[in-house]
Amino acid sequence: MLTLYGAPASRAHRVMWMLKELEVPFRHEPTDFLHGGTRSAEFLRINPNGRVPVLVDDGRAIFESLAINLYLARKFGGTLAPADLWEEGQATQWSFWAVTEVEKPLLLAACNRFLFAEADRDPAEFQQMIARLDRPFRVLEAHLAQRSHVLGDRFTVADLNIAALMSLVPLAGIGIGDYPHMEAWLESCLERPAAADWKPIRFTVPRPPAERMLASFV
Ligand SMILES: N[C@@H](CCC(=O)N[C@@H](CS)C(=O)NCC(=O)O)C(=O)O
């Protein structure tokens, strides 16, 4: 039996999307990460990082949203899973790429559009983050100009991991028209029925002090 910890309006939605694509039943523990739900002794025994998502599979816990999805792809197979070692390497590569090249600037851009309280938003910082995203976005654009999906011609965990992270793009109203192949690909990924089922974000997060800005903050 699988148990997923994490509310839909958190990085747990990435794993919910994957589980729904795979049509795998799971128990859901929403876990309120904004109000101490991830800091209880009980939760820290499951994920000592004090973060969601974490997936418990038959008593063993795995954390890191994109790693969980790669694990689920391997475990349940099907067309979402890498078909061979090369595809597995590519899926890992693009997942690490999404986290290292895209996530921080995109999240900070989104914070400055809707996740920070209005008084904490900084339009100049938003523009800086958009400028930083140009390099990885051009990389993905060039890749998708040659193929319909990240691993070739079918939707896989590699698409899901990147698109789930980039679901902040429409939420933050970030224009990506300069990257037409990436824009069409993202739209098609987010239109999948399994992607739709997560609640709109209705909370704000505090702006961290400048010295902590580079640490993960939401
Ligand atoms: N890299 C981790 C990040 C997890 C993360 O930061 N989750 C946030 C919610 S989206 C959290 O649990 N924050 C609570 C905290 O840091 O105390 C992943 O992708 O799973």
From TrEMBL:
Residues 84-210 form the GST C-terminal domain. Residues 1-80 form the GST N-terminal domain. InterPro entries: Glutathione-S-Trfase_C-like, Glutathione-S-Trfase_C_sf, Glutathione_S-Trfase, Glutathione_S-Trfase_N, GST_C, Thioredoxin-like_sf. Pfam families: GST_C, GST_N. GO terms for molecular function: transferase activity. PROSITE patterns: GST_CTER, GST_NTER. CDD domains: GST_N_GTT1_like (cd03046). Keywords: Transferase. Gene3D superfamilies: 1.20.1050.10, Glutaredoxin. The keyword Transmembrane helix does not apply. Belongs to the GST superfamily. This is Glutathione S-transferase family protein. It comes from Azospirillum lipoferum.
